[in-house]
Design brief:
By secondary structure, the protein is of the alpha/beta class. Helix content is 29%, strand content 19%. It has a three-stranded mixed beta sheet. Strands 4-5-6 form a three-stranded mixed beta sheet, covered by helices on one side. It has a three-stranded mixed beta sheet with strand order 7-10-11, with no helix packed on it. It starts with 5 loop residues before the first helix and ends in a 14-residue tail after the last strand.
């Protein structure tokens, strides 16, 4: 899971531009999330936060710390102001938008700061100045304002974890973050959807009773093993429509990443409503022999039926 924090705050400044349904009170979101985690823990679920995973072992393992710095370096960008008079830029000024200076900056930061960088994707634009430290800086960000929805960046199939390819530009960088987190936990990623395929985790459901033993066995050794995971060896459901497409399903089947005998494609041809963008907005599997479905989409006469 990923607790609402700085990216959520940035996203709340313009909800429509951040794919939010409506304006957000971030304190309410945080309190609801904390309560959600508490209820899960009370029911025997071991919850790990993405921030904690990113910082895992960085205080005692040089390799873990260096990996986090490298990740932050990839998303932190320095650039010289293109609108300024080039005659004001000295050769030595270029050092302050280069990788060596960036490395010095990141090495001095705490792991918590590095995670904030990864979560907000900042670009620092430097302008030469004739006073003080010889520079002024302005800042822009591409925050991971939807990272709280941690079921979308991947699917977990019979054969393992497959990274998605999210439809919205605002969410593209989330996949790299979750892939980095899975690798830190020792979880094997078997593949990743590429263009023109589009896949989001909210559109996928396993259905069956095959134990996903390879993921349990490769789980982080420093923690007690998680409860058994069951996946469908015979059948899985995958929704296509607003967020996932047939090209992604074809990639999953061509590479045998789903590992099931049958694939049920649930096609949203008629509605394509943002309020019900994913299959899990209208359907869910509760147990081996019970599911829940949106009543209005049932039957051949429904104008929002799925195929």
């Amino acid at each position: 899971m990923c607790q609402p924090g700085l990216p959520k705050l940035m996203g709340s400044l313009h909800p429509a531009g951040s794919l939010y349904e409506k304006p957000v009170n971030t304190l309410d979101s945080l309190n609801q999330h904390i309560n959600f985690k508490r209820v899960l823990a009370e029911n025997g679920v071991r919850v790990m936060d993405v921030r904690d995973v990113l910082m895992l072992d960085t205080d005692c393992d040089v390799g873990a710390r260096v990996e986090l710095e490298e990740f932050a370096s990839q998303v932190l960008k320095y650039e010289m102001d293109k609108s300024c008079d080039s005659r004001l830029i000295k050769k030595e000024d270029l050092f302050y938008v280069g990788n060596n200076y960036k490395r010095q900056v990141l090495q001095a930061m705490s792991s918590d700061q590095l995670v904030d960088i990864i979560m907000t994707n900042p670009t620092v634009t430097v302008t030469p100045s004739l006073r003080d430290t010889n520079f002024t800086a302005s800042y822009s960000f591409l925050p991971l304002s939807n990272i709280v929805f941690t079921r979308d960046q991947q699917i977990t199939t019979c054969n393992g974890i497959v990274m998605a390819n999210l439809s919205s530009q605002q969410r593209k960088n989330e996949v790299d973050l979750m892939k980095f987190s899975f690798r830190k936990l020792g979880l094997r990623v078997i593949g990743q959807i590429t263009d023109p395929g589009r896949l989001e985790g909210g559109d996928f459901f396993p259905a069956g009773k095959k134990r996903l033993q390879q993921i349990v066995n490769s789980y982080l050794l420093n923690y007690p093993p998680p409860p058994p995971l069951f996946q469908g060896e015979d059948l899985c459901f995958i929704g296509i429509g607003l967020r996932s497409n047939l090209e992604a399903v074809q990639q999953l089947m061509d590479n045998d990443w789903m590992g099931t005998r049958r694939v049920a494609i649930v096609d949203d041809q008629f509605e394509k409503n943002q309020d019900r963008m994913h299959l899990d907005c209208v359907f869910n599997i509760l147990s081996r022999d019970c599911c829940v479905m949106l009543e209005e989409m049932m039957g051949e006469q429904s104008h929002i039926r799925r195929y």
